[in-house]
Amino acid sequence: MELKTVSTHHVPVRYLEGGSGPPLVFLHGAGGVTTDDPLLAELAKTHHVYAPLIPGYGDSEEAPEIRDMLDFTLHTWDVVAALGLKDPVLVGHSMGGMIAAEMAAVAPNDVSRLALICPAGLWDDEHPIADLFATLPYEMPALLFHDAAAGAAMLTAGRNVTDPNFLQTYLVTNARQLGMAGRLLFPIPERGLQPRMYRIKAKTVVIGGDSDRLIPPVYAHGFKKGIAGSELVSIPEAGHMVTLERPALVADAIRRLG
Amino acid sequence: MKFTWFNLMPWPYLPDDFREKNRSVWVDIDQKLFDPAKSHEVYNTYMDLLEYADTLGFDGVGVNEHHQNGYGIMPSPNIIAAGLARRTKDAAIVVLGNSIALYNPPVRVAEEFAMLDCISGGRLVAGFPVGTSMDTNYCYGQIPSLTREKYNEAHDLIIKAWTTREPFAFNGRYNKLRHVNIWPRPIQEPRPPVHIPGGGSVETYDFCIDNTYSYSYLSFSGYLRAQALMNGYWKRVEERGVDKSPYRAGFAQTILVADTDEEAERLYSEHVSYFYNRCLHVYPGFADAPGYRTIKTIQTGALSQYAPPTGGYTQLTWKELTEQGHVIAGSPETVRQRMEDLIKGLNVGNIFCLMHVGNMPADKCMYSTKLFAEKVMPKLRNMFPDWEDDNRFWTQPLKTRVTSGSLPKQAPTSAELAATYGVEA
After folding, report:
1. Which of A43, B59, B333, B401 could form a disulfide with B2 if both were Cys (CB 3.0 to 4.6 A apart)?
2. For A140, which residue in chain B has the nearest alpha carbon?
């Protein structure tokens, strides 16, 4: 995957691009996405993949004027237009799934294939979602992965925790990325999608990790129920980061959209 | 110098094993640890102590706002301040303050502060904190990276509501109000003095300088550790080319006075330990929501004072706490010397004296307070003679004020009313 830049109304947007085939847009979750993401590599085998970074993620410029759900939704449509794409396969993971679902709800005639992977965006009092923003780094792997030890290794790979600037860099990255994510997810990751979901016309697959401890599987069922004709694919021995734990199975489910 | 007697109002019944058995004193503190029946006495004793400070000549009595917090049982400081406005005579009522991003609409703060100023005869000092991340984000659900924008808008609305003499429309991002026209408005013109509690955000320095507000550093780690932060503030004041009046700054300091240094340790060490080792036990996941601090502030290296210290928590001892300056404690002479170091070193004219600490009982608190008022405060009065007339950062009360509770002992009779008002035919 190659990191590139495209101009949009608000800010220049950084995006990862690779592969060939029909166009596919992947929207990342609150943790961001990197060039070596295994799901993007899988998808690139069959699709021309575009993975735009939300402003503030990675090395991309911040966009303070993107504040609420509608701002994020329209901005991401701006990105799709700026990339010159028409009706790409729209895929989103977690927060990215929330944005993708909103995009498909506000412009139902512009999205014909939609994949939502462990999507955020709904809330059920009986099954409260853990507070990601009060979770300490060492608690993250158990929340995000089926295999916490392997997950911890993935999260810390390439990080030099002995670097004296590590803490400050970590805090700045968190402030930029999770600060932006908080506009959609804090303190409760729900911004009114439920009563708008009926508008989605796309052929939709909802993909969940069976042992997702951040957004429990009951939420995937909620999306299936809310989107007419949608299919639910539950992936065993996978947590919220099913994209890292079972990338081939996730890609297969997406490919079945056609 | 302005000395404000401050009470955080800690809950005094946290168990000995609180730290071992609970993850946080704040946000998700165990409901079962609060006993409403016991709180009746706790609240009234704490308010009595604030009133006592007024009788001893403190310049102000201070209250603040925290939510879901075992060391601050004052979610609404204005309720306590209302009681103090009635029951104190001369002290400024220092509300430090109302977290204005949390009120919807914030004109409520403009109104309640106006009421406090009117009831107290112009004795209100108005504090506008952004609020800690625990209070503002985790308890009151504000989106971290939008908190400051909302705070700034609330501030502009409150000041405009105080100073505009006709109804106006306010079309903000977070507040849309067609008819703003607060009634009552404050006594003090053009507005009550404003103090801004800050914890090292560089944006807050400029905000205070731009608006002629006093910057208050409310730290619990004492004056020695505050030096770097306050140096940063004064450097900014200098860069901006404004005067360096010490009243542009305030500092909170735990102070405990006894006859001798030894007596201070004997009387107060358990209460200091209670505060530092139990009350400040905050789950690090609540210390600093991502996006609450600006990138610029993080890059200056200012971390939340609630973040765990490098190397993790240890049990802080009396010796460490006094030697490192978290606490200024000892005989009147010891305390005077250290207070002089603090006042000169930090160049601060407003001292928020934390004279009640942890689970300290009222008798010890009165003893320490009286010694400070009589044997320390008078010797510290004249630290900044050049700035004696600087009244930009303190209250301007009415010269003649009524005393509460001054109704006649009995209701008048019909005959007495006739004598006063005449008889209608």
Report:
1. B59
2. B285
